[in-house]
Specification:
This protein is mainly α. It has 6 helices and no strands. It has 2 domains: 68 residues; 78 residues, SP0561-like, CATH 1.10.3910. 68% of the residues lie in helices and 0% in strands.
Length: 158
């Protein structure tokens, strides 16, 4: 009988320890979930700050180049920077099959020369069209006629 009491006491102590461990486990899981949520929020805030800083840096760079009279598209400019120069730049790039559809998509962080190289396009006609847009488009709000910028994107030979 004495051994039965000892066994019951040990069992009760084990049950209480398991219940306490389970409660601590739930508490730790909640803390981990809150921490993960906070890390996610911080990452999102960091990405937003980085994007804002990149946009502000790009705007300052363009203002500096514009004030120096050297605002032009160069092969080492990123696609995102070129599109930021003038909204019609996307149309020109799409005309040369650099962006505009799923099969010829470009990364905004990719340089113009990288994009041209990966799709096997010629650099000069694209630079001429983009620089014509930048020069004639002025502040980026003026639309340049499509006839002035249009270049054939498909050439048929019979």
């Amino acid at each position: 009988m004495f051994l039965t009491y000892i066994a019951l006491t040990i069992g009760l102590i084990g049950f209480l320890m398991a219940w306490r461990a389970n409660a601590k486990n739930k508490d730790l899981q909640e803390r981990i979930a809150r921490t993960n949520s906070r890390v996610y929020d911080l990452r999102r805030e960091l990405l937003e700050m980085q994007q804002t800083a990149q946009q502000e840096t790009m705007q300052l760079k363009f203002q500096l180049l514009k004030s120096q009279g050297e605002l032009k598209v160069t092969p080492d400019m990123k696609i995102g920077e070129i599109v930021a120069l003038h909204p019609q730049a996307e149309q020109i790039l799409a005309g040369f099959h650099l962006g505009g559809c799923a099969s010829c998509a470009t990364d905004p962080g990719q340089t113009l020369s990288e994009a041209i190289g990966s799709y096997g396009r010629e650099l000069e006609p694209i630079l001429v069209a983009l620089n014509t847009l930048v020069v004639e488009g002025g502040n980026g709000y003026e639309t340049v006629s499509s006839e002035r910028l249009k270049t054939p994107n498909i050439q048929l030979q019979f």
